[in-house]
């Protein structure tokens, strides 16, 4: 084995999160190497956020035009599935990462292709495609940014079949005649609607309800829309076994019922990717990786960090990139000796918003945008919380489309008179979400928020209605 190379920071995994943490430490004057075994850019760019949103967007535009007389008459054709798939492919750069590779080089980050494994304290061994190895020693930090892996449920027969995960669903070259979707989380529901609108006959099988992390009024609007569009959605339904017959998947869903489909998408959640990366070599249990708010893994002695999906706190690109900025700055500050073990909440080194103000969007049509806590979560956290909710019915929404149907909710900390959670559901609500994120993160007092006047006639006027209903 050749001598180990020494560098300030080693980042394992060049997804959006790994790229950002490497970029941040280099900006702060440290040297960094980024190690990637697959495509630079990770899941979000090639098999998750970008392609799934590209598959959804054209049909949302079409439905929006159909909701407005005058425009409706101009829509004479149907969705062109081939064009939709082509546009999706262009958003993934045809699964070619050369432009990302160029960005890494332009940012002054070293790139190593291969599988990285911790091989000792501050030490990482990379096995390249040709079997050769390179070893790096980090002066300051090793950062795990290895993402997450699909969780496949132990359903009889499933393991032996060629089912789709979200990777195959987001990169498919053809629309199947029929698709069964196992799991009613955000990935399953978004892809179910995308494929139904592209022409597939889609059946969703959800163990409980769909989009269970959101208030039921919000997920109910999505469920109603899916059913109105002709999707079969089985809620509170357990899948007991799966097999293939005549080339089709057959799922047994209890009481003698079954679902048959050409393709089966298993989208039943993801877990942190901690296996096969050598955590055992430094005495850590891959199933019990924890991180503090600066991203540091407390049990490793101060040099190991975990950011993004692998950190096990939030599985969202924007939140992982936020963690990357905080962790990158914490690593640089600790290298300079200006930060000790502890960092205050809301400091430039702590991802405090992970626990209090995570914005998330379900990009179905209608959309859901939520930030912070639901009423139940807030009360569970010991907040003396109240909720105010209403249907979105303002001048802006009636102008938006004739059939606009939406719902909004604020969750208020009654002791401090600030918002701790906001949810909007309805067409195009995602662009309103950042106003709510600012209110929650900024802990804007309600009597000051009362002075934030929404422009007329926008859908944002729902803010005014919510505050009026609350009692302002
Ligand atoms: C279908 C779908 C749609 C989604 N849509 C959205 C969305 O709209 N908005 C949103 O915010 N989030 C979305 N997400 C979540 C988002 O994709 C993830 O939160 C995000 O990709 C996590 O980024 P990451 O960098 O932590 O991990 P990843 O993007 O998974 O990157 C990890 C990288 O590490 C590499 N790697 C792993 N182990 C090693 C190793 N040992 N050596 C070398 N390299 C290694 C992997 O190859 C990979 O490239 C979606 C997820 C799915 C599944
Ligand atoms: N718009 C977005 O931001 C977006 C889109 C897609 C995915 N994501 C992220 O990706 C991650 C993965 O998405 P996901 O939808 O796979 O996970 P998820 O955890 O959101 O949903 C998984 C769903 O599968 C269900 N499930 C589990 N086992 C099951 C079984 N045996 N049978 C039927 N249902 C079962 C769960 O009850 C849950 O509803 C999420 O954490 C999410 O944050 C984000």
UniProtKB/TrEMBL annotation:
Q: Which GO terms describe its biological process?
A: 2-oxoglutarate metabolic process
Q: Is Nucleotide-binding set as a keyword in this record?
A: yes
Q: Where does NAD(+) bind?
A: 183-190, 269
Q: Where is the Pyridine nucleotide-disulphide oxidoreductase dimerisation domain?
A: 358-463
Q: Which cysteines are joined by disulfide bonds?
A: 44-49
Its required cofactor(s), as named, are: FAD
Residues the record lists as binding FAD: 53, 146-148, 309
> One GO molecular function term?
flavin adenine dinucleotide binding
Q: How is the cofactor bound?
A: Binds 1 FAD per subunit.
Is the keyword NAD in the record?
A: yes
Keywords from the UniProt entry: FAD, Flavoprotein, NAD, Nucleotide-binding
- Residue stretches making up the FAD/NAD(P)-binding domain: 8-320
Matches recorded under InterPro entries: Class-I_Pyr_Nuc-Dis_Oxidored, FAD/NAD-bd_sf, FAD/NAD-binding_dom, FAD/NAD-linked_Rdtase_dimer_sf, Pyr_nuc-diS_OxRdtase, Pyr_nucl-diS_OxRdtase_dimer
In terms of Pfam families, this protein maps to: Pyr_redox_2, Pyr_redox_dim
Can you tell me which family this protein belongs to? Belongs to the class-I pyridine nucleotide-disulfide oxidoreductase family.
What is this protein called in UniProt?
Pyridine nucleotide-disulfide oxidoreductase
Which organism was this protein described from? Answer: Arthrobacter agilis
Q: Taxonomic classification, please? A: Bacteria, Bacillati, Actinomycetota, Actinomycetes, Micrococcales
